[in-house]
Amino acid sequence: MIGIVGCGAMGGAMVQRLLEQGQSVICHDAMPDARARMAASGASVADDLGTLASQCTTIILSLPRADVVKAVMQELGPLLQAGSIILDTSTSEPDVTRELAAQAQDAGHVFIDGPVSGGPNGARKGTMTMVLGGPAESISSIQPLLAHLTAKTVHIGPSGSGHATKIANNLLCAANLALMSEMARLAATQGVSLENLLEGVNAGSGRSAVSEVNFPLWIQNRQYNSGFTMGLMRKDVGLAVSLAERSELALPATRAIAAIWEASREQLSDDADFNEIYKYGNSSDV
């Protein structure tokens, strides 16, 4: 039995993916409406963490922030069965992750950081990428589970390194979105359409996942329905800034990108799709 704590867009999609793959799953969410939604979809639902922990020795966390992960682990930790493995797929803070991993080790458990990329659609289809931090032997033991959820896994190193890598990845994505959006506006002044610009960029050294994936899937068609919000990306960019401050690094480009995402609040709410940063400063696209 696999446990999943957190049944939002990502956690709920993972529940459905595992059920389709014939896996036994029980899930829990602090919000009653989320539990009701999962029950209506056919999933087994635990009303509390104790019930979930009593039935699982492998538990996936899909939670919004490090403080929520920490609070859940404070409640869940004493309830775990001996030798349990916790896989935290949230985008969390490396310092918190290392603290929780040390506590888990002292209690005879394993806490692995495995943040994911690919969004709810990737979770639903089992095509996510996961970067992992933690003991190699424990990660190896859950590879059959990871094979149901991911198309690619990368073991980065010890605890916390998966979350550090995910913060770096999301900052680069945020930067590429902001820059590609500005280049689209610049190219338009020279009579170059967005379609032709993307074709040229994607044939050259400036290409990125943003130009190859985000723009065609969610921006060119103005769908803006990736399932990942402006608020979540602002949070992740903020994690990069906080990590830089704690590490006493200046990182001027990081701060410039963070300023753009923060300033965009005046035009784009936290609930907007994160690809809508393309609209920022461009009134014709609002």
What's the quick description here?
By secondary structure, the chain is an alpha/beta fold.
Helix and strand arrangement:
Blueprint (H helix, E strand, L loop, with lengths): L1 E4 L3 H12 L4 E4 L3 H9 L3 E2 L3 H7 L2 E4 L4 H11 L8 E4 L5 H13 L3 E4 L2 E2 L1 H7 L2 E6 L2 H6 L1 H7 E8 L3 H28 L5 H8 L7 H11 L10 H17 L5 H12 L23
Parallel strand pairs: 1-2, 1-4, 2-3, 4-5, 5-6, 8-9
Antiparallel strand pairs: 7-8
Helix pairs in contact: 1-6, 9-11, 9-12, 9-13, 12-13
Question: Explain this structure to me?
Answer:
- The strands form two sheets. Strands 3-2-1-4-5-6 form a six-stranded parallel β-sheet, with helices on both faces.
- Strand 2 (25-28), helix 2 (32-40) and strand 3 form a beta-alpha-beta unit.
- 52% of the residues lie in helices and 13% in strands.
- It is α/β, with parallel strands linked by helices.
